[in-house]
């Protein structure tokens, strides 16, 4: 547990309570320097990402204009296509970095009742549009009309990340099931696919920034390496957990388990 020092407000402490025989031992560490370094890292990432946005927008605009010229020599066309693809990928990375920084920096978020049936239908419709080139069969199963108390913008991003990942990493013509169910703990959102699966040694590190199982495959699918890091931070803000079950070559199930404290009955406006 991290707390602000009660004697010096500018100092930050980390407290650990561990068993010590029949009693318990409280250990307090001064983590002020680590806290400041983490703040500097977040500020640096946010500032650099923001500064990259303008030149990237200019480059993308000119590349789009040049690519549309009917008299462009054929031997230049492929080069412009590659530049357009890579600037678009860089733009996605910058946008994800900005979103991740915003989630980390904001201590409080605007929370409200979220109609999960409406939100999931929106996520499903977006998935069907993205799915056109993959040809998957996507099912949406809603077993409860209970909603959530949280940040709809951030939850929409987190839910969409899991669904888009399932689409991208499932061979064409696969099956993807999206579900929202009530559990003894609260409610569970799950995305199940019959895709390529994940080896056990990778699962614990999937939510790290820029962690890639197969770097070549991730670049080919247009991934930024930040999607699951965003999911992890959004769930932390909602006191929820991410559970991952996967068998290599058979498929994966990614689940978000939300506690009862964040569940709201559909009858509440």
Give your account of this protein's structure.
The protein has helices at 32-67, 74-105, 116-130, 152-168, 200-203, 215-220, 227-237; strands at residues 2-4, 12-20, 23-30, 112-114, 137-142, 147-150, 175-182, 186-193, 241-247, 251-259, 263-264. With 269 residues, it is of the alpha+beta class. The protein folds into three domains: 2-30, no CATH class; 33-105, Helix Hairpins (Orthogonal Bundle), CATH 1.10.287; 112-264, Histidine kinase-like ATPase, C-terminal domain (Heat Shock Protein 90, 2-Layer Sandwich). The strands form three sheets. It has a five-stranded mixed sheet, covered by helices on one side. A three-stranded antiparallel sheet has the order 1-2-3, covered by helices on one side. It has a three-stranded antiparallel sheet with strand order 4-6-11. Helix 1 (32-67) runs antiparallel to helix 2 (74-105), helix 2 (74-105) packs parallel to helix 7 and helix 3 (116-130) runs parallel beside helix 4. It is globular. The relative contact order is 0.11. The model has no long low-confidence stretch (mean pLDDT 85).
């Amino acid at each position: 547990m991290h707390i602000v020092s009660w004697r010096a407000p500018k100092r930050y402490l980390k407290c650990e309570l561990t068993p010590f025989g029949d009693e318990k031992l409280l250990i307090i560490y001064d983590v002020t320097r680590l806290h400041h370094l983490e703040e500097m890292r977040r500020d640096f990432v946010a500032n650099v990402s923001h500064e990259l946005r303008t030149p990237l927008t200019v480059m993308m605009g000119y590349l789009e204009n040049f690519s549309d010229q009917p008299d462009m020599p054929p031997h230049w066309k492929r080069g412009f296509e590659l530049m357009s693809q890579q600037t678009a990928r860089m733009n996605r990375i910058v946008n994800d970095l900005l979103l991740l920084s915003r989630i980390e920096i904001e201590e409080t978020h605007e929370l409200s009742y979220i109609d999960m049936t409406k939100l999931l239908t929106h996520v499903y419709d977006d998935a069907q549009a993205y799915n056109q080139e993959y040809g998957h069969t996507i099912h949406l199963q809603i077993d409860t009309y209970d909603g959530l108390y949280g940040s709809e913008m951030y939850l929409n991003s987190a839910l969409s990340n899991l669904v888009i990942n399932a689409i991208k990493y499932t061979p064409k013509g696969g099956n993807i099931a999206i579900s929202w169910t009530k559990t003894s703990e609260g409610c569970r959102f799950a995305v199940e696919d019959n895709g390529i699966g994940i080896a056990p040694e990778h699962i614990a590190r999937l939510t790290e920034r820029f962690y890639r199982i197969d770097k070549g495959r991730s670049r080919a699918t247009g991934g930024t390496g930040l999607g699951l890091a965003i999911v992890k931070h959004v769930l932390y803000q909602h006191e929820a957990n991410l559970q991952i079950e996967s068998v290599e070559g058979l498929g994966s199930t990614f689940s978000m388990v939300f506690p009862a404290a964040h569940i709201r009955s559909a009858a509440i406006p």
